[in-house]
Every structure is written in C-alpha cells, then in structure tokens.
Amino acid sequence: MPAFSFNDILLLATTLFSVGLAGVLVRRNMVFMLMSLDIMLNAAALVFVGAGARWHDATGQVMFVLILALAAVETAVGLAIILCLHAHGRPTLDADTGNLLRGWNHG
Amino acid sequence: MHALALLAASVTVVGAVMVITRRVAVHAVLYLVVTLLSLAVILVMQGASFAAMLEVIIYAGAIMVLFVFVIMMLNLGHPDSAREKEWLRPRAWCGPGLLAAIVCAELLYCMGTFSGPARPFAPITAHDVGLSLFGRYVLMVELASFLLLAGLVSAFHIGRNRVGGN
Amino acid sequence: MGEILLPLLILCPLAASMIVSVSAGRMGACAIGTVACTGVGISAVISIILSITLLSGPPAGVLQVTLWPWMHIAGFSADIAFMLDRVSMVMILVVTIVGLLIHVYAAGYMRDDPGIARFFGCMTLFVAAMLVLVLASDLLCLFIGWEGVGLCSYLLIGFWYNDPANTAAARKAFYMTRMGDVALLCGLLLLATATGSLRIGAVLAAVTNGQLAPSGVNLAALFILVGALAKSAQIPFQTWLPDAMAGPTPTSALIHAATMVTAGIYLIARLHDLFAMATPIMALTAILGTLTLLMGACTALVQSDLKRILAWSTISQLGYMFLALGCGVWQAALFHLMTHAFFKALLFLTAGAVIMRTGHEQDIFRLGGLRHAMPGLSAAFAVGASALAGLPLVTAGFYSKEMILSGVWHVHFGLTREWTLSGHPLWGIALLGAFLTALYIFRCVFIVFCGKKQGTSATGRTSRLMSIPLGCLCFLSLCGGVIEMPDTLPPLHLFSTLLDPKTPLSHADEPIWLVLAGALAPLAGLGVAWVLWGRATPVMHEIPGQAAIIRLARTGWGMDALYDRVFVQPFRLLTWLTHHDVLAHAITATGRLTQAVSGRIFQARTGFLDILSIWGSRGTGWMAYLLGQLDNGRVRWYAAWIAGGLCAGLAMAVLS
C-alpha cells in the first residue's frame, strides 16, 4: 500500500503549483521568479511520477527526466540573461524594467 | 496516511511558501533545496527511487549550485533587501495572490471528481525507465538533447556578449 | 578487408581535417598542405583498391558495411551504414582523384594565405562529407553528408570574410540550397512514412512493388527533385552559383564545379527506379534541364568575368545532366558528370593560375595575348575548352555529350494517354546548346590567350605543385572519354556496362547523321568564334552592351532582382513592421483618432444621438487605449494574463 493515494499527490501538486504561480506573479526580482518557475515545474513533474506510480507505467518517470532537462535549460538561460542584464549596469533585478526593446527603462 | 508522508508533504508546501516570501535570495535558495529534498522523499514513497535520485543529484545538486553561483556574482547587498521589503507590501500581494488562489481552487474542484481503484504498490526501477526511455521514447531523448544543445549555445552566446559589452 | 577499408576511406580526410583545424597557427603552410594531401591521397588509394576488388567480384556485387544502428523506434529504423556499388564506385573515384589533384594544386595556390589551415580544414572536411553522401546506403545518412557539403560550401565561399560581398554570397548560397534541403527532407519523410525505412534498397523495392500510390511517388519524386535542383543550381535556384565564385579558386573547382553541385545528379541517378515510376516528374526534370542549359550558355556568352563564365558554363553543363536524367539515361548523366569533373576542374584551376599570375585580374577584356607569356597554361586552358565544347573524337566531352544527345533523341514521354512529349525538340535545343557552348568558351579562349596584349602583364612562374595536377587533368580531359563510344563508331560500352550490366545502353538503329550533327555543332561554334574574336582583327571585340536583352542576360536574366522584389523585400518589410511594433501604434492611433472625432462632434452638436455617438466613440477610444496597455512589455503582466486565461478556461470547463 503506497503512502499516498493519487488524490493526495494531486492535492499536493496543485498546492505547490499555485504557490509557484503566486511567486511568479508577486515577486519582481527575476531570481525569485526563476525559483518560482522551478517550483511550478516540480509540481508538474510530481503529477507525472504520481500517475506513473498509479498505473504502474515507466512513462511517468520518462517525462520526469525530460522535465528535468527542460528545467536545467530554463534555469541556465534565465540566469545567463540575469547576469548579462546585471553586467550591463542595470541597477536592480526588477523584471518590470525590462519592458523596452533595445535598452531599458532606468526609472 | 503515513505520518512521515504527511510530514514530507507539509515540509514541501511550507518550504515553497518560504521560498516565495524571503527577502534575501540565498535564504530562498536554501528553502528551495529543503523543498526539493522533501519532494524527493515523496517520490521515493511513490516507488520512483530513480526519479528521487535525479531530483537530489541534478535539481538540488546541480541547478541549485547554479543559483548560488549567480547570486554570488550578482553581489546583492542591503539596499536590495530593503527594496525587496518595499516590493512585498500587501498591496502588491493581494491581486496576484487572489488570482493564484482562484486557479488553485478551480484545479482542486476539477480533480475532486477523480477516483478509481488503487493498484497494489510496486516500485518502478531505473531499469524499467531506461528501457522505456531508450526504446519507445528515443526520439524524445534526441529532442531533449537538441533542447540542451540550444540552451548551451544560447547561454554561451549571452555570456559572450556580456564580456564584449564590457 | 573491404569492411575496414570503407570506413577508413571516409575517416582519412576527416582525420586530416581534424589535425589541420586543431593545429591552426602551430604548423607551417607546407606541413598543412602535406597533411591535407596525404589524407585525401590515402583515400584515393583506398578507393582504387576498393574499385578493383568490386570489379573483380560478381557483376551485381555490393559491399555493405553497417557501422552502428542509429535509431530503432516503432515503425522506423535508420542505421549509419555505407554501401559501395558501381554507381558509388564511380563517384568515389571522381571525388578522391579529382579531389587529390585539386588539393595538390591548392597547396601551391594557397601557400601564402594566412588562413591556409582553415582552408584545408574545410576542404578535407568537404571531401569526407562528400564521401558520406555518395557512400550512404541510408537516405538519412545521405542527408548528413548532404548538409555537411552544404556547410563546407558556405564556409569556403565566405573564406575571405573581410569583404562583406563574400559573406553575402556565402549567405545567399546557404539560403538557396537550404530551401532545397527542406524540400528534400519533406520527400524523405514522405518515403519514410510510406515504407518505414530509408534504406535505399528497401525504399526502391517498396516503390517498384507498388507499395506507394502513384500520387505519393510523384510527390516524393517532386520534393527530391526540388532538393536536387537547389543543390545543382538549376532553374529556378541558379542564382547562387555565379556569386559562389567569391571563394578561392580551388574551392570553385572542387565544390562548385566538380563534386558538390553534382550531388543532385547523383541523388537522382541513385533513385532512378523511383523517378522511372513518376513520368510527369521525369518530363519536368528534362524540361528544366533543357531550359537551364540554354539559359546558362546564353548568359555565359555575354559575361566578362572569367570565373563567372565558367560558373554559368557549369550551370549549363549540369543542365545537360538533368536533361539526361529526365530522359532516363542516368548512365549518360553519370558519364558526363565524370568527364565534366575532369575538364571543369582543369578549366577552373588554369583560370586560377592565370588570375594569380596576372595580379588578380578576372576581366577577360583586360587580359589578352597571354599565349606568349604562359604557353603551358594556354595549352591547358585550350584542352579544357575543347573538352567542354566537345570537339569530336579527341576529347572526353564529346563522348559523354554524344551519349546524352542520342539518349534524348530516343526518349518518349507518355504523360497521359492522349498527350505525349517527344524528345526531338529537347534534342534540338541541346544541340543548339552544344553550339553555344563551343561559341562562349572559345570566345573566352581567343580573347584571353590570343589577340593583342592588354595592359596587364604576367609575372612569375606557375610552381611545379600547381602544374602537375593540371597535366594530369589535361590527360583525363582528353582520354577519359574513350571508355564509352557511340554505336556508329566502334561500339564500346565499358562505362554503361559497368554501371548496369543487365541492360546495356545501346542504340544500334541510330541514324549516322545524329552523331554527325553532334560532332559538327561544336565545330561550327568554334568556327563562328574564330570569325568573331579569333582573327588578327576581330569582327567584334566586345558584345555591345547597349541592347537591353544583353544587359538583362549579363545580370543573369534579372532573376536576382526578381527574387529580391518577390521574397527579400516583403520579408524586410515584415521585419521592419515587427521591429516598430506597428500593431500597438495602429491601436493607439485609432484610439486617438476616435477621441479627436468625438471632441469635434461634441463641439459641433449637442443632440441626444450625438451624445450617444460621442460616448460611443470615447468608449472605443478607451478600449483602444486599454488594448495598447496590454502589451506593455512587463513579463509579470504577461504571466498574469496567462494565469487569467487558465482561470477562465478552467472555469468554463467546470461550469459546463
């Protein structure tokens, strides 16, 4: 008997997903937005693994591996962009200042 | 439900909440590591020990180290912490928080209709995952490798521009 | 032994490429040239050994090597596998031997260039990719080689990248061939879904067994034809090849004359069973080939740049090969491919030596009377020119062109039950093309090497390293054709029997005037060229540029301008529009306009309806303002909109 039923997993994943979503929407610091995105990705991955365990299918963990690859790429590129913006002399990591193409709003 | 399972689940959720409410980025990273580790515990309880291992090694290990490095290089100080406090006022909270709560409620309502007979518990080993990954889903592996390559190239490109900009 | 030699054949140039590229800046020019030539030389020796082994075996013998399985998924499998049969044997001999001669020449030609390591790295990589292309027994593996040669072509056209014109030419070649590659990939996917494998043998067997519907066969053949047309610079993709002459001359000789541009011909010859099932596509191939050969010859006649003349002549000769493929005589196409590789490499290399010794002067009207200054080069160029023109009996070009012409005469396309297409008009145009070929190439010979001495003077000597390959190519251009003769001469069919032992190509009922006409057309061209440009006081020193049609022909019939209008300018406009965020501007402008109108109306009248209209227009104005606020560039707002959409979608799902 598994410690969790699939319903519990769905409940937990939904909560995690909402917390991550709230983080993306609330935080203006881009580092925090990336971390919240990672929480959301983890919630999705958890559902896949839970479904895999529920129907005893390895596909769930295959999807987990792919999500892991996606998260790695997303984090690497996102952090590279943050570093790049920071090195270009942007004063803060505020995502809202990045609203202009070819340059940014220093206000 | 198992007491340990309950503990792991609550640590996960509390850790996630702490991540999104911290003012100092390093604290948030540490809480995220805690969240990921307890998520790994949950994965083990699901019989997915391989996924749990990957979660610990790659997520909590490699990706979080990336975060720590970047935060070190950004060199955030006291004014940033103060600014974060300024940004985390209830006025900024309520709208997005409401939206996220609505999404959460709707999702919970949707999945409330799910039910079905439980199967006997049987772990899925790395062997099964490997067979599936390099058998039926080998094209997905190729696609993932394309994605990683694209990520590598773009991260390199962005980083190089940064050097050129200075 | 063949199992080891076949991968080694590809590995040698690849290893040379790796060594040369990694050693950039650490090895002298001499050492780099030696390594590159050794790599290609070893593979030339291996290809000769393999050919002897293959020919001493049974007539239909094939050497198969599967290196490793690439992917096996449900319903489809692909291997990294190579296959040596008689078609690919001819190709590896041409690629490695002509490649070796050009590498030796290039070792002398590029000796003083600072980028020699990069140059030889790309050239040897090209040889390796070309060998992958011709040896692949799996179409997906062939595609790797196909893209590899395209990449090397791009790198070498833009070799002198300091000049923006060169990089533009490289990009143009890349884009044009990439369009064809997309079509080729579509064709391959079509075949893969229909047959479940891309092994050439399996695909052809499935097609000939009727596993594919006729429309499917036609569509796949059309896609593959488009890919081949783009690679071989045929109408409508011909514009990239003349610009590709921006690269170093050995590159033009190896990639843009002898081997890479013939990849399209090789592909269609390899899949000739598929094309034989698609009669309309065969007719299309023949017609496009005919048009291209005529157009290429006419354009070459009015060019004044030596390398561009040769480039247009390549396009025209490739047109002959496509004509032969379209008429089903793929053996003739491969034969012409081989002889063309010999004499066109010779012409390019000689032109390169001439250009090098006259201080990079490419305008034929500024060269002149070089016969005395460089007798050896003049003789080599004349040999190449006569082989290109196909002067009867003594040159290789004559026999291959004759084989194509007789094949075209006998062909008959049964497109539908009522409508058939005879090969006779195509034969007439091809004969006219042969006349024009002799005319334009001897125009070039007479203007450059005969006549009065012009301002440029020749300096220096051609080094031994460069003259030995020229001598070998001269020999091949003269004598490489006697292995296949028309039936009216001694009926010798070594080449076509070699390729296809079961059904040798023979036209015993061929009228003798057919061969005579093919022999006389180049002679007539030579005579007219002599009258116009050859005598001590030429009738015409330069074709007058005033006539509109000549000006048009000089620019390649305005195709570049046309493509610029039709494809490039609209795309530029699109990028400009997205760059300037026109949608947001339009929304804001609409809002401002309606607000302004409402203000005017308010000033003018105050009736009930007017107030209604005013508020209506104000409302639309505000709406426009709000819409404009939607794309404010703030990531968090976008995320919020996504979340809101998720909310709404879930709500609809829950409530319904």
Provide a descriptive summary of the structure in words.
Chain A is an all-alpha fold and 107 residues long. Chain A has one domain (8-91): Helix Hairpins (Orthogonal Bundle). Chain A contains three helices and no strands. In chain A, α1 packs antiparallel against α2 (30-55) and α2 (30-55) packs antiparallel against α3. Chain B folds into two domains: 1-95, Up-down Bundle (Four Helix Bundle (Hemerythrin (Met), subunit A)); 124-166. Helix content of chain B is 81%, strand content 0%. Chain B contains seven helices and no strands. With 656 residues, chain C is mostly helical. Among the domains of chain C are: 292-543, no CATH class; 545-573, no CATH class; 581-655. Chain C is built from 27 helices and four strands. Chain C is globular, with a radius of gyration of 30 Å. The B-C interface holds B 96, 99-100, 102-103, 106-107, 109-110, 135-136, 138-139, 142 and C 71-74, 640, 643-644, 646-647, 650-651, 653-654.
Short note summarizing the structure:
The complex is a heterotrimer of chains A (107), B (166) and C (656). Chain A contains 3 helices and no strands.
